[in-house]
Structures are given as C-alpha cells and as structure tokens.
Amino acid sequence: MLAVFVLLSLTSCGDDAIMQQAMASTLVYCSEASPETFNPQTTTSGSTFDASARPLYNRLVEFKPGTLEVLPSLAKTWKVNSKGTVYTFELRKNVHFHTTPWFSPTRPFNADDVIFSFNRQRRSQDPFHVSSQQDFPYFETQGLNDLIVDIKKLDNYRVQFKLSKTTSPFLSILAMEFASILSAEYAEQLLEKNAIDNLSSKPIGTGPFKLKRYQPDAFIRYEAHEHYWKTKEKLKHLVFAITPDPYLRFARLTAGECDVMSNPLPVHLSALAKEDDLNILSTPGLNIAYWAFNTRKPPLDNPLVRKALSHAVNREAIIKAVYRGSAEIAKNPIPPGMWSYNHSIEDHEYDPQYARNLLYRAGYPDGFSLDIWAFSEQRSYNPNSRKTAELIQQDLRKIGLTVKIVNLELATLLKKVRQGEHKTALLGWVADNGDPDNFLGTLLSCEATKSGQNSSFWCNEEFDSIIKDARSIHSKRQRTKLYKRAQSIFKKEAPWMTLAHTRQTLILRDRVKNLVMSPAGGVSFSKVELAEAKQEETN
Amino acid sequence: MLKVISRQILVLILSFLGITLLFFTLTQLTPDDSNVVWQGHVRSADSALAQKAIELGVDDSYVYQYINYLRNILSGDFGLSITSNRPVLSEFLNFIPATLELGFFATLIALILGIPAGVAAATNKNTWVDSLIMTVTLIGYSIPVFWWGMLLIFVFSLFLDITPVAGRISFIFDIDKVTGFMLVDSLLAYPKYQLAAFFDALKHLILPSIVLATLPLAVIARMTRSAMLEVLASEYILTAKAKGLSRFRIIWVHGLRNALIPIITVIGLQSSILLTGAVLTETIFAWPGIGKWMVEAIYRQDYPSIQGGILLISSIVILINISIDLLYAFINPRLRKPV
Fold first, then answer.
1. Residues of B in contact with A217 (CB under 8 A)
2. Are A189 and A103 in contact (CB under 8 A)?
3. Mind telling me how many Å the CA of B143 is from chain A's nearest CA?
4. What is the model's pTM?
5. Quick one: closest CA in B to A16, which residue?
6. ipTM (interface predicted TM)
C-alpha cells in the first residue's frame, strides 16, 4: 500500500506545473447545500441565492458590497415623483447576457427584460407565470402584488413603476435577490420549445459569472462572463464544492481542497489558532435577538422596571455560553451594519447594584415574580433560547426576583405572544432588506400592536410619529436623523432588552483577497482575486 | 447447460416479480395518499393532482394498478425525481458509473489482498501468521465503516497529507462528462491537463476503495482460509505430495483452483455488501454515486427516486448473482447437470 502512495506521488510530480496553473485561476468554495434552483425568483433559501442571484444575475439596483447602501446597477439613474409613488428608471446600455451552449443572445439587455422579470412574478395571467407552475414566495411576502400597480415600458431603456402608496424602502426591496433580472428573449425561446423549466436549470443572466456545469450534491462550476458590463472578473473559474457535513467541509478546507468555507462551527474557529494560513471573515448578520417585555402588564409598564431588568442581565456571559462568541451584544433594536444605526447610544451596562436601585426607585424594593417564555427550536438569531432563559433566571435571582421559565414550541409561542398572553418572551428578527423600517416599523410601531407583531405592545406616540415621518420621506439624511432619534427613545423606554446580533462567518485561505460579506446575508465572489501562489509546499 | 440457463432465467423473472410486488405493496401501505407519494408533495391546484391520479390509475383496482406499475417499469419509466424533475432512470444512470468505479477498485483490492491472505493463513495454520491474519480480518469484519473512514481521512489526508479528503477529483480540474467513469474521462482530458487529472482521480480513489473493500476483504480471506483447509486435507493433495510435486504447485495450482469454487460464490454475495457499503462510504467521502444519491433522496423525501433507486439496485444485485451462478456452472462441470 505504501508503494502505491510513493508511486503516485512520484508520477504526479511532473504535472505540478499544470496543477498550479489550474489552481491559480480557480477559487473553490465549500458551500453547505445544493441550490434548489438557479432561478432566484422562486426561492427564499440563502444557499440558493449564493449560487444563483449573486454570481449569475444583476438587479436594477444593488447593495454596495459589504454594506446595505443602494447603488445603481442595471438601472443607471432613477427619478421619483414628489409623492414617492412613481419610479422612472433609466437603464444601462450595452449590458450583455451570457452566451452559453444553450443560449446565444441576439440583443443586449433592455426594458423588456425588466418587464418580463417582474410581470412573471406579479401577474397571475402572465404566460410565464402560468407556465412556471411555481410560487414566487419573496415577491408575495414583500407585498409587491398590492404595492406595484403598474410597470410601463416608456422606451427601450426607460421603465416606470407605479406604486399604490409611498414606500421609501422600495429601492432596498428592488435590491433583494428575488428581483434579479432574467432574459426575456431566452424565456420566449423556452416557452416556444415548451421547456420553460430550463429557466431554473440552465440559467441565463447578466451577472459576473455564467454556469458551466452542475452536478447536484457534488459541485457547481462557473466561468467568468467574458462580456460582463462591469470590469471583467479576475477569477476565471469559480467552483462551489457542495459539502453539507460541517466537519468534512472543515477537513476539505484544512487539506487545501477549498479556499473558502461557509458556516463553520464554533469548534472550528477555536481550532484555527493552529493553522496560520487560514483567516476568519466575519460580519454581523442583519438580525437581532431580544427579550420583549409586555408593557401592558404591570410592573412591566414602568420603564424603570424594564431598565432594571436590562441592567441586571449579564449579556456577555450569554454571548459566551449560548452563542460561543459567534455574536455580539446588541444595544439598539437594529443591527450595526444597517444605515442610521445610532453608535452614540449608551448601552445598559451589567450592574446588579444599579438594577436594585432602579427597582427600589420604581417601588419594588422586595422584587416580584416574573416568567420568561422561551422556545425549544434552534434559530439563527438564537441557538439555544432555553439556556438563555436559564442564564437570565440566575442573574435575576441575584437582584431578588423569582423567575419561572416557560418552554414552548416557537409556533405556539408566537401565536400566544401575538395575543399578548406573555409577560416576557425571548424573540428575534431577521432582516428582509437593508431598511431600518423593516425593524423599527414592523416590530415597534403602534400599528404593529394590533397584529401583535409588536410583542411588547409598546406604543409611544413620539416614537411612532417619527417612524411614520421617516417612511414617507425620501432623503436618506433626514431619515437617518429620524431613526437615530427613534433609537434613543427606544433605549430610554426599554421595551426590549436587546440581546445579541449573531455573526455570519466564513473561513478562508490566505490567497483569497477582496472577499467581502454582505450584511444582508450571503457570499458573493465578484471582484475576488487570488494572490500569486506560494504553493510550493502544498502537494 | 441450456437447462441451467433457463432455470436461472426463471429465477430472475420470479425474483423480479417478487421485489416489484413488495415495493408496490409498501407504497400502497404508506400512510400518505399514494398519489401524494408519487408526486412527493401536494401542489396548490387540486385539479393537477386529480389529473395525475387519473394518469396513474389511482382509482383502479389493486391488480390493475400493479400491472400498470409493471408496464411503466418495463418501459423504463420510473417516474420523475421530485427534486431534480428529471426521470429517475436517467438520474440513476448519471450516478451509477461513480459507484461502479469505486466498487470495481474495492473488489480488486479485496481479491488481491484477501485470497493470498487466506491462503497464507491456511498453509501456516495455527502459527503466528495464521493468528495475525485471523485477528486482522476479524477487526476488518467488525470495524464500523463510518469510524474507519474518518480515521483514514484523519491519518492520511489531514495528518500525513498524502491523499485527498473527499470527492472524485480536485475541483480545479474541469472534466467533461463523457463516460461517467472519472478515470476514463480524466484521460480523455489529456490535451488539457496531460496526466495530472488522471493521477489526481486515482489518488481520490485510494481511501474510499480501501474503506469499501475492508468488509469483503475480511470475508474473502476467511472464506479462502477455510476452503483451502478443506482442500488441503483432501486425498488428491496427499497424492500430489506423495508424487513429490513442489509445495508451490500443490498450494497455488491444485489447492487454490479447487478452493476457488466456493470463493466465487462468496464474491457474488459481496456485490450486495458492496452496494450497501457504498451508501456509507460515499456519504463519508462525498462520492457522488448512487449510495449518496439514495441518502439525499431519503433526506428530501423524494419518493420516486427512493422507490426507483432501490428497485434498480436490487435488480443489479439479482443480475450479478445470477451471472455468478452461470459462471460457476461454467467453471464447475459437476453443476451443469442439475440433480
């Protein structure tokens, strides 16, 4: 057997040059799952977006890499009418779709492609909607069916969207993956051939990479798009090595079989100290875990009490024990990666003595009893809600409170919370887009107390009017100002104890340069470069 | 001989009817509505479901449905995979070459190492050689495949860094799929990569074939030992010894040749062990063969793939065993005349 190994290593020596050359132009990403489809319109899964929307397609507007700022993409510029209900987009010219063995475009991208991509999801009588036999889940949950009244082609390079009401996050919504632009010409060809399903298996887009080969549960191979409208990619080949088992993924990474690994386990991060050619890339995810106080139930109607609870909990210990360091302490209701995040807010420090003082001032020198609702499942924003509750219970005991933990299934918990049956509950939220309204408006406005989505049932007039104002104006500077003020009101009133923002983490090899993670989730390899290899010792 | 062949064909038909009936009945017994099982999930439109039900003949009688099912299978229609939306048969043909390649190398290792080991143990009966071989094969026989695979990856791939961790070939190579057999396809890519891709593919085969070969190797070694012992004790070996034939000739020509007959039967039986072992081995080494395909199909509750896949795998096992029986009859003239 040893002889076989020796023989193999000898014979392969001469091919080193070829190996090195192939290696220098190929980035291998060990991903966690096979994509469900290559059409981002019909899915909500993050792994699928990584494999479809980001490498293969562009959108009218896109998030600036590593941030949630909306930048022009396929739309060069846009105008909005004064009421904020009509958007006119000026489209970019000379944008080419992929040329592949299954499709050769005869024309560049134009308004027809935009209309096709949206109407397919919007109009149930659209032939492409009917033939898809699929749902368009994100389009529906964003409420775009009601929001978009009409999409008109003004000329080949101008498109107009009419909305039913002012919605300032509209551009952020258009930057989401499901709003990717597909080729209308390709779809028409497929419809003729009665092969519309190919839209999901043989994709055509305008993005930085095109699909070369896909073997389910094994790998996806992409090639740089040679006529990409932005600067051409430095990376010639991109491979997704589909490896659902996290241990195997890590083994592949350490053995040098892949350059980037998704979703490492906490144990892997601690094992990394021994490997000096691997780096951790980590960004705060767009999420929040929080402990909601039902402000309709005394003594939680008293802001002093709510503040006392916030000061009494050692959140650092929770981050260590429950999140194992893969999260950071939250001080605001929106994550720090989001624009308008108020950095100047002072957090409620862990200080049991001060918490006691606050309780004393609030008129509860002898404490009171409380229950915490926790859920049994694992969620991205909280890997172990029960353990979180137990740690909180211990901390509160120190300031003289008796705490009962109620464990529920998440679905049941949410249903009861919406009806306001809880005193306090551990909850969380993951962003749909980069707009602060998606957190502040959806979770804390007075209107959201009706549906119970506002789980504190906290309705503060000042806060609420700020949120309403911010929604109806377009100037980002003004909106930022308003949201910052809203956050300071939130902190003063403390309807939640803000607990944690979990991190999104990748491990990557030294040679991978310029990889940035989007705070909205997901990985994009556009603009990534591979450093000239110091590969002599590998093999 | 004709009689033997016709008997085997009869066995083939009966076993095939047996398994199809079994699978068909199991499907009927699934607690879900069977048309849901066929389709995998209920889509919003009930009319589509009703349409499918008519196509599948769900409302017809049990016997009629079974005949319908048989007719579909015989015409190669195993339904559509729910996840990929492609015919199950073409999915199967897509994945089988990887498994055959792996299985071939595993069998090769099991034979090349197993038979000499068994012979060595038999000829050195009750010495330390014998006990060593028997102990090692006992360990090989009882070692959990999962643990064994991980151990090999840890030692050879991560610690010594001489074999790849998983997969069929490094991702840096872009190999066109022609035959589906990676060794062949990587050679066909010679103009692009010369032999680099081929050797890389060969390296990827080492650990998984060792892991897959372990159990059959142990079985073959032990079987060879006992068959050899029996043959070596027989009178014609004694005669050969008396005639003064060399030890080499006695063991390898007269002894092994006669001992091979029971061994071949055992090798035939290993085909089912190899195919079940492939499920675990392929999962550990991310080897894109039918074993891994089946596991994924189960995770995704892709019923058409599971049903079609298992039926096809069982058919292969039956076919292999029947061909082994025929081969056996060919080698051993005594068996040509049925008693």
1. 288, 292-293, 296
2. yes
3. 20
4. 0.74
5. B196
6. 0.77
